[in-house]
Amino acid sequence: MKIDLTETTSSKINAALVQARRDIGTPAIGMVLTLVIVTDEENAYDALKSANDASHEHPSRIVVVVKRVSRSPRSRRDARLDAELRVGADAGSGETVVLRLHGELVDHAQSVVLPLLLPDAPVVVWWPEGAPADLAGDPLGALGQRRITDTYSSEKPVATLGERAAAYAPGDTDLSWTRITPWRSMLAAALDQQSLSVTSATVEGEDENPSCELLAMWLADRLGVPVHRALSGGPGLTAVRLETKDGSIVLNRADGGLATLCMPGQPDRAVALKRRDTAELLAEELRRLDPDNTYEASLKFGVARLEASAASPAKAEAEPEATAEAKAPAKPAAKPAAKKTPAK
Fold it and tell me: CB of 8 within 8 A of CB of 82?
C-alpha cells in the first residue's frame, strides 16, 4: 500500500501509518529499529532498495530524508513537507516513510524525523553519500546510536578517512570497513593455523580505495609491522601478502569472486571471497549497535603513519651503512715530505 501526503505534518504521517496498518490487517508493530536514510533524489532509489532488502533480516521503520534544494529565493522561504508512505509488500519487512523537505524546513530535518522514530527502539542513521564531517555533531546524526557512512562514495576517499578519524565518536562506522570483514576473518584464521611471526605485509588494490587503506591500517595496528600499499587494476582489494621467516602467506583475489589462499607447507586452497552488494553490507552493520573498537583503533592509526611505517625498512637499511661510515676511525693525515737540504 502506498499513500501520498502533500503539505503534511509529522502527526498526520503517524496517524496515516496507524490507519494503513489497520487497513492491511497488521496493527501490531514488529519492527526492531528505525533506520534514517539521509540522501538526495539522485541516490534515494538505490538507497531505499538496499534498505528494503536489508529489512528482511532486520524489520525496521525506514525514514528517508530527501532535502529538496530550492532554486528561487521565494521558494527557499516557503517550508513544506511532502511524504510518501509504504506499508505491507511495498515496504519490505517493515514500513517506509519518504520525506521530502522544501524551503527552510531543510535546515530543521531533525524536528520532522524525531516524532517518527519508533518508541524504545534503537536508531541508526545512514548517509549513502555526502555525509557531514562530524557525524555525532550533526542534528540528524545525534538521534542515532549508530551512524553509517560510505567513504568510497566521496571524491577524495583517503582524505575523508582522516576527517572520520579526527571527528570519530562511539557508534560511527563505515561500509568501507564492512567490505573487508571477510578478508580480516580469513587472514586471522590463517595466522591462527600457523605459529609464524609476521615481519612485514603488503596490501594490493585500487588507488584511492578506502577499504585497502583500512585493511592496511588494521594489519599495521594489530601486527605492529610495516605494511606496504601496492596498486592494482582491481576490482577493489585484490591481494594481501604476509611475509614470515618460513615463507609468505598470500590471499589473492584477482577476479572479485573466488580467492586463493597460499600458506607455507600447505597446498593452495580456493576460498569464497565475493564482492558484496550494499544491502548485504548494511545488514551486517545492523547486526550490532555497540561501538566498534577495532574500527576505531584502525581508523585512528592513520594513513600518514601507515606510509611512514612502510618507509621505515629502507631507512633502517640505510642507517647502518651511514653509522658504520661515521664510526670508522679516521685515517691519519699524510706527513709532508721532508725538505732536502742542499749539500754544502
Answer: yes
